[in-house]
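Quick one, T. Sequence first:
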Amino acid sequence: MPSTTSPDAKPQEIHQAALKARSEVVASLEARANVIATARLVVFGGAIALLAAIVFAHLPSNTWLGVVGLVLAFGVLVVVHARVHEAKERKVAAVRFHERALARMAGKWRAFTSIGEKWAVDTHPYAGDLDVFGKASLFQLLDATSTRFGEEVLARWLSGDAATPVAGDGAPDFAEAIRARQAAVKDLAPRVAVREELAVVGSLLDEGKPDPRPFVMWAGQSGAAQSKGLPGSLRIVAVLMPVLTIGTAVLASIGLVPRAAFILPFALCIVILASLRPRLAPNLEAASSKETALSRYAGMLAILENEPFEAPALVALQKRLRESGASATKEMASLSRIVGFLDARNNEVFRFFIGPMLMWDLWCALALDRWRARAGRVAFGWFRALAELEALASLAGFAFERPDHTFPEIVPEATFEAVTLGHPLIEAEKRVSNDVSVAGPGYALVVTGSNMSGKSTLLRAMGINVVLANAGAPVCAKSMRVGRIVVATSMRVSDSLDEGTSRFYAELKKLKLVLDLARKSKKSNAAEGTVLFLLDEILHGTNTRERLIGARAILRELLAQGAMGAVSTHDLGLGDLETEMPEHVRNVHFEEQVNGDVMTFDYKLRKGIVQSSNALRLMKIVGLDVVEG
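Structure tokens:
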């Protein structure tokens, strides 16, 4: 499969073709594995039979050559079988990658297991209301990460940490940072083979998403922290003692010194190593425990290191892998060799005889110190770069699979303008899109309409598309202009028995959070972004008179603080604000269509205040007949 796909090919066709090809390879490898397994059984049985014939039939002694040949053949078959099995596992992982892509495009992504529930915080300004995390969430749709670091980066971007650059130093302009991320996503999107390989290598990790922190923390610690420092004089000891021990043994073997002379330097080696054990053991044991982590992540780092990316942000990520002066994959290979030498101690003969004679533990400890001094301090940067690549690959998969979405124009000023804006979590065949605009700070939409007409969905579509835009992803719209805005919502509100909180009081707490963010934004001159408030059925937990008074006051205060946004309401009196503040408030509405007892909705946004209501009709439809009077 080429690194990038043809721009004329449809995403479904590309994934279906790749799925078919990978499935055929899996079937071929499975058949080959079965043949080899059968051959192993035959060879093993033949070796046993020949051995029995030698013992009981007294075959000639040269028959043993046949036994040796069968044993060697069995060993070769074991190695080949393991390689075929590994190749099959990789292709199975590739099959899963394309199956998941097709499932997302078919609207079956809600069955995916990664839902990001750990990132769902009740006090977050918008995540709960906009379905950013949890079941049937934006995170569940997007997530294609394989490591805990990658998942954290993606979750942070979706949580609003938008200004953090993808790579590089300093604090770039917000628009510049998002444009850089967009360019990286655009570069990765057509590189289906690269994203497939990243997913394949990541799938070979442990169950779940492994956390690289233990390895990173060990690698980044100074030698003094682990081994209390290894003085340079120990290098002399590491050279001198093996020379003295081996030299004495050689001299003793040719009779130049007494044979017992070998015992003295060998015993001295054991004494020196025993005295150094408190310094060496923690470092050596920690390194040995990281062996699986090396092979676990080296393949993923190699993908980032070797792909000829064009986007500056991705090129910057690649530069992070060379911060030690050598490439990350070479440094990991070097560490892997050291750990391999270290684990030679697992052989009992080596540990108790050869190891002490060669001062093996000391040599390994010195090599580890050199590696950590050279590369350990930048290991975090490697995994940070890998995590950002995984997060970008998740967004790139979303971009590739949704060609009807578009990358928004990121502008310096706070604004929200969208043409044919839809909700990305609603499937295309069910989605209804609308043109929506909020001119800027101090400007609001008052959205009225019947029950079930689409008011809440419109507000959520506005919010979740801003979340996508701030993350650097494409949005569900034909076009969109958006500036640096921070989403704050009050939509889903529920009481809490544990806290003794009523529904109305819970809503007040959410509204206060929105107001506090607006005031903070004004105080900082919108340095951190202008608040985009999205308030659904504001204050509907109290009576009509107080609800209208409170809603008007809250909306006026938000606009006075320079916030912008939209409010949905059943209180048509809130629409009077358009007359009182024509430069700041605009009325829009949804309405139903009635044909006899049948009521339908077209979910199209219209100008002005709604002129009808449907509560009584809905009650009648479900069998609750109400007599007006």
